[in-house]
Sequence to fold (821 residues):
Amino acid sequence: MSELADQPATDTGVAAELGAQFGSDCLYQHTVDGIPTFWVAKDRLLPVMRFLKNQIKRPFPLLLDLSAIDERLREHRPGQPDADFTAFYHLMSLDRNEDVRIKVALSDADNRLPSLTPVWQSANWYEREAFDMFGIVFDDHPNLQRILTPPLWEGHPLRKEHPARATEMDPFKMTPEFQKAQQEELRFVPEEWGMSREAKHTDFMFLNLGPNHPSVHGVFRVALQLDGEVVIDAVPDIGYHHRAAEKMAERQTWHTFIPYTDRIDYLGGVMNNLPYVMAVEKMASIEVPPRAQVIRIMLAELFRISSHLVFYGTFAQDVGQMSPVLYMFADRERLFSIIEAITGGRMHPSWFRIGGVCEDLPAGWDTMVRDFIDYLPKRLAEYERMSMQNSIFKRRTIGIGQYDTAEALDWGVTGPGLRATGCDWDLRKKRPYGGYDQFDFDVPIAHNGDCYDRCRVRVDEIHESLRIIRQCLDNMPGGDYKALHPQTTPPPKERTMEDIETLIQHFLNVSWGPVIPPSECTMAIEATKGINSYYLVSDGGTMSYRTRIRTPSFPHLQMIPLISRGFLIADLIAILASIDFVMADVDR
Amino acid sequence: MRWRLIKIEPDASMQPIEDAFNEDLAHSVLVTKLQDLVAWSRAHSIWPFNFGLSCCYVEMATALTPRHDLARFGSEIMRATPRQADLLIVTGTVFRKMAPVLQHLYDQLLAPRWVISMGSCSNSGGMYDVYSVVQGVDKFLPVDVYIPGCPPRPEALLQGIILLQEAVEKDRRPLAWVFDETGEAARVAKPSQRDLRTPERMAVTTLAQPTTVGDAPLSGELLSSTRTDHRMK
Fold:
């Protein structure tokens, strides 16, 4: 068994320091990902969190994730404190390059917790999400409202008793009364957000931008408080794209959830499969052969380029350039012809498998990839002159929507948005996963943290991705494209015809899918838009007990009010574009 | 350069024009019924509403860009407000939270208006049989064309738009009841493309092998087979 709660805390790192400060208040739990995990009583939560963020030497400034687990149906939790619900907090320290996970046990009768909003700005939306999904109440939260489900929703979807399927619920009916009531609930009330309707010399205008607006990049709504054209304050409103991927994971087998991961960051393609399959591999102790690792990296980097090209083109379009987006989509089509030749799909190939990839590379892949990586740099040089060096482009983006590293971490910003502030935090470099330690590449950074720099970093990343892909191309290892592990690959067909044991194993693997031992594991990767992590809890079944998907875009949107105050509406459009979010990556 | 003038010798392929006046008239004057003219113009100036929900929207945007170039089929003018548009392409998952908003947008489209449902989610909920998703946009909006796929390729969207254009050109009100000569009312038929094309598809015997790199399997052939001659009759 992987969980040994009474195993003593290790005497190094954060475990020792927490032990010295709080003694037996922190109960250690072992997890397969090796992240020090501690159970804390709810009245000790705030002191522990303040200690980790502010007082400890080399602190944990980034609240990476916050959510909960409904423990009521879980069978395997040896040594863990009794709980109906568990709230968990995942913190990250850049200085130490270390993570820590804090858990708090809650009972159904008393599911209240102190809010962490005084400690981390980013806790606000995460706590609203935990309230929406589990009904956990956070005391002293500034505005604890539903965030993902519609305002008149009943129940808390990630509780085990909530129906998962739409077909288990009453059929959807659009009556005029229903529509009116829902629309009325969406009406923006400034007072709810502590806004006044007028100031000394002016009446503010409240403008509703979205949820369907060409420049909000998806179904996303921002309510703006305006003085003329100047943004005084903004309230982002999300949840219009909530596809319930986390609930879905609780009814799909380990393998059949892979296609759902593709659709989380729908510009990232197979990049989304990577943290999920790697987490499952860690739980099942599966070694991935080198060829599969390199194929994965090559495809992930191709999708990073594809995603950045969409960003680059739409960003230029949003600040007024019509042509670049057309050129870049044409390049993206070339890239998709490679993706299609290799995987058979375009946007959602669902091509990675637990233990490797779906099939081997087709004959002739290398010529296609080489043609593309020889072709793209010339085009990028042209775009550099067309966009990045364009004086209007620069004046629309330099100094707009600026934030520094400390603010970025406080708001949970990762990825290019963080690297644009001069912080070189890139998990591919800092915690090389899946074979990235074998590659020679740099982590591009910029220093102003404005819209221009966020674009700069992404453009430079395209060049670095091309470097990585070239190394994949030149050094593609031979061997298997998938691990020969009983959990991942059916036994050879000839043997199933000869003995019953092999036949049974084949049958079970194909019909039920693999059984993953009871364990907990987080796997984080540097996705196209920032850190994407999967926290999987297995209860020893063929399906996940709880899947938590931490996506980068969610906290990024929360920061919009901070970086858009005082700018014009037109600047807000540039800021929205520079964040590079995908609504499916926000609402999941 | 050396050159000289010669006299044209009419040969067998050159016919003298007998009725030059009528010939000329035929090139510049067109006689048709007004309703046919209106239907033809409508079919070839469909303005889609710039509306996107999820992944499918990216493929719809791709259909506008160079390789696919929706402009060739006369539907590239995306309007940002429903009041200027006559085609709603529901691109992506219809969420319960978004459905009232979508209904509100649809109500603002001026008639005649059409709806294309693009992608599995919008067709039926697709792989998202889950509490937050409406199981198909046709639960509350009338749909003219369904495009399968998750997401459908841009070519599939082009095919869907062409199918819609053909329907609009043929049936002046594709959504309405039609009365025939005897006064019988009937719905306009929406034939399943799958049924129509199954024989042709089953006749294919050689498929692209996944083990070698080939051309993209769908694009060219799909377009050439659906595009009929659109010159006015």
